[in-house]
Structure formats: structure tokens, C-alpha cells
Design a protein that fits this description.
There is one protein chain. A 5-stranded parallel sheet has the order 2-1-3-4-5, with helices on both faces. The protein is globular. Helix 2 runs parallel beside helix 3. The protein is 42% helix and 18% strand. The protein has a single domain, classed as 3-Layer(aba) Sandwich (Rossmann fold). By secondary structure, the protein is α/β, with parallel strands linked by helices. It has 5 helices and 5 strands. The termini are close together.
Length: 118
């Protein structure tokens, strides 16, 4: 699993919530460029991707990830502050959305639901 967010607190919240229960190896990236490098190297099955980031925003990162054949089966969950980018993200290939702020329980439920299809 790859967690991409420029906010270290959000990355820590996700990793702390999931590290003992998800069964996934957890990787982190702080921006879109680092996410693409990590995705190419580790080929995650699940990516949590923030929309608003420096260097390369989440929608552009999503488009690049979806263009890679090796990541065609990867599930990508967009982390959003609202619904304003949802249409663009869906068009670019987002599978799910998690709106910030979110509770650890919401995160666990989403991962549990997604794990059944991974």
C-alpha cells in the first residue's frame, strides 16, 4: 500500500491506523513525483493519493499512474478536502474517495471493503 500526502500528519494517521490490521506493507510518499517513483518500484495494490500536493498534484499523478500498464489493477483512493475535484478524479481513473478529515474507523472500513476485491 502506498500512502501519498504532503501532510506528514495524514500519512502518520493512515500508517498508524493500518499498520497492524491491514496485512499490507505500507510505503509513504510526500508528493506526486515520489509517488510515481515508489509505484514503479514497488507496484502497490492500493494507493491513497492526496489531491492537493506540491511538485505534482494528485490528479496529474493519478493520470500518470493509470497510464502505466504495470499498475492497471491498482486501486486508487483519492484523499480530498471536499467534492470539488471529484469529477476530474473520476475521469482520471479514481476508484474511491476518502474525504478529509476522516476518522480512523472510516479508514478501516474502507480498507476492509477494498481488501475483499484486491
Amino acid at each position: 500500500m502506498l500512502i501519498v500526502d504532503d501532510d506528514r500528519f495524514i500519512r502518520k494517521l493512515i500508517t498508524t491506523t493500518l499498520e497492524d490490521v491491514s496485512g499490507f506493507s505500507l510505503l509513504e510518499a510526500e508528493d506526486g513525483r515520489a509517488a510515481i517513483e515508489a509505484a514503479l518500484e514497488f507496484r502497490p495494490r492500493l494507493v491513497f493519493l492526496d489531491v492537493d500536493m506540491p511538485r505534482l498534484d494528485g490528479i496529474s499523478t493519478l493520470r500518470e499512474l493509470r497510464a502505466m500498464d504495470s499498475l492497471s489493477d491498482t486501486t486508487i483512493v483519492m484523499l480530498t478536502a471536499g467534492h470539488e475535484h471529484e469529477a476530474d478524479a473520476r475521469e482520471a481513473g479514481a476508484d474511491e474517495f476518502l474525504t478529509k478529515p476522516f476518522s480512523p474507523l472510516d479508514l478501516l472500513r474502507l480498507v476492509e471493503d477494498l481488501a475483499q476485491s484486491l
